[in-house]
Structures are given as C-alpha cells and as structure tokens.
Amino acid sequence: xxxxxxxxxxxxxxxxxxxxxxxxxxxxxxxxxxxxxxxxxxxxxxxxxxxxxxxxxxxxxxxxxxxxxxxxxxxxxxxxxxxxxxxxxxxxxxxxxxxxxxxxxxxxxxxxxxxxxxxxxxxxxxxxxxxxxxxxxxxxxxxxxxxxxxxxxxxxxxxxxxxxxxxxxxxxxxxxxxxxxxxxxxxxxxxxxxxxxxxxxxxxxxxxxxxxxxxxxxxxxxxxxxxxxxxxxxxxxxxxxxxxxxxxxxxxxxxxxxxxxxxxxxxxxxxxxxxxxxxxxxxxxxxxxxxxxxxxxxxxxxxxxxxxxxxxxxxxxxxxxxxxxxxxxxxxxxxxxxxxxxxxxxxxxxxxxxxxxxxxxxxxxxxxxxxxxxxxxxxxxxxxxxxxxxxxxxxxxxxxxxxxxxxxxxxxxxxxxxxxxxxxxxxxx
Length: 429
Known about the structure:
With about 425 residues, this protein is an alpha/beta fold. Helices cover about 35% and strands about 20% of the residues.
C-alpha cells in the first residue's frame, strides 16, 4: 500500500460516527494520505457504517458497488457498527478489501500498509467483550460546530438494539482529556461543541482516553463534566446531543437553566409513550418519569427546545399502544420528533416478541408521527416570532443562502454574508 496516497471517507449513521470518521481522517493525513471528497477518485475509500436500521446496511452495499464501477482498482475499507456485527457478510461483498471491527477502526493506516488490491478480503474483527479502551474523537469538517465524543458503548440491553453488540460496554473519556480536546478545538476556531456518546448520561465509566484497553475507576460523572466545561474560555456554546431520561437528573436540568454556555436544548429519547411497550423494549423508565423531566425543563426554561426519539411498529405494539404514544406526545410540550420505523435486527430479543406489526402499518404510524412533529415544530417556532435570539451562522453557502441555529435550536436561513460566517448574530425571528 506504499503507493496509495489519497483517501476518501463516507459516514453512515449517527453524530458519533461523524466524529470518529473525522478523527480517523486526521490520523491518516498524519500518515501521509491526501484527503479527497468521496465523489472524487481516490486510492482508498473508507466507509464508516451504521447498523441501526436495515437501510444503513443496504446503503453500505450500494456504495461499494458504486466505487467498484467507478474505480475498480481502489482499496475499499469497511468499518463501524455493521463491520463489527457482520464482518463475514461484508467480506463477501465483491470489491471489499478490508473489514475492521470496533477495536481496529483507528488503526486503518497500519492495516493498509500490509494490503494489496486483489488479495483475499481481510477481516480484523474482535470479540466485543474485549473492547474496553476509549478513543477520543471529534469532527472538524465545519469550523462552526464540532461533535466531540466523550462516551462510547452501552450497558443497557434494549430489546430492539444492536449497539451494545457493535460498540461494547459503556466507557468514557476523563474530564481532563475532554478539557484538552475542547481547548484544541477552540484553537481551531470552532464556536460550538456538541457532546456526543452512545449513552451520554453514563459518562464516567471506564476507559482513559488514550486508546489503551484499561478500565479506570474514576469518581467522575456527566454533571461534573458539564460544570468543568462551563468554566472554560474559548468555546461560546455547548450542546448535549442526546441523553436518556433516567440519566437526565434534576441537577443537570437546573444547571443548564442558569448556564451561559450550555444551550437551552435537550434531545431525550422516549421510544414509546406506552408503559407496556417500554417494558417490552427493556427501557429503564416509564412515561411518567419522562413527563416529569419535560415539565421541569419547561418550568425553568419555557424557551427550551426539546427533541424526542420515538420508534413505531416495534413487536407487540397494537393500535391501542400506538394511540397511547400519539396522545402522550401530543400532550407534551416538546418541539420536534425523530421518528424511526422498527426494523428487525439479528440477535435481538425483540425477534421473540409477538405480534409482529405489518410493515405497511409501521410506515403509516411513522407518517402520523412525522405530521405531528411538523405541527409541534411549527407551534414551537411561532412562539418566538418577533423576539430576538442569538444565531450562530455556519460558513457554508447553499445556493446563495446561509443557515444557522438560535440558542434554542430554531433553524434560520438568510442570504449569504461572509462576515456572518462562524459568528453569533442577534437575530429577530
């Protein structure tokens, strides 16, 4: 692989994957690779996969076929969750040269040195139980907003989810190392950092941020982390990407309500508004707790944006259960929904649950909740018309327009002005 000098990346899935791809890219650039855009010709293509839904699996296969048609001599590397879960399945895709599991994704450059196009597909996977180190990563494709991974893995075993199988046990960075990364990001001009993780509220468990396979017992938690970050100079905004309702404590909510740096914006997974379905999903809370969290947030921060993850059509979800979810979401003072249609995942407990919801019913329920989300977002935004809120504008020009977000996550679009790029502007909604 000494002749390979260019590399292109494509990321499927979550913000966590984007932060990891960005860090892998920087590691490879330090090894002498020249980064190319994915639609350009490159010597190596790296696809960082997701496997939360069946569509992500299909998209990975489609990308491989596209590369094969365009540049059949290029090396194709597949890593990420799909690679960890189904390495042999990926290795059987024509054109794939290297499959890297969770423990090897940050060592791509080393593997490439031993690889030649035409060799049989190499698999470097691992027993997920052996994955215990934490690899810090952050995205820097856009100076305005950076996704910083501070936690990885999950100790929960929700019946529908493969993430613990793909990413291993819960582990996280140290507060000291997070602070070092934040200072590094600030030096590169970023104004906003989004804290990300698989189970962010579990911050404080395991890993030492060095990439070693050690588990450290530290008396650190997410509340302690955000307190330390709030004191730092150099970054103007922090956001909490997604946090489980049972881990979103009153003290975290109260802290955000008085913080000048943590934005009034929470994204809190619900998944179902039916306690019976939450039980089948093996979630660790009931809808009453969720309602309490929302009520506390809104009592302290009426202007706060609240996003909700919800899954429709999971096994056992009857029309009555779905109506419970719809009515519950309708009653909550929330701002928008991320709606996911349940899809079967191998080796999950959900496959044993009956009855199975027909696919067309799943799609109908998805449409109903997306319509509800549209109305919720419209209502939330309308409340702020005529008010002034700080907007951080991004540097990209999209057909002569630029976009930015208010502190409480309302998207603003306006004609492009270069002097507003990566700048916070007081904006009348």
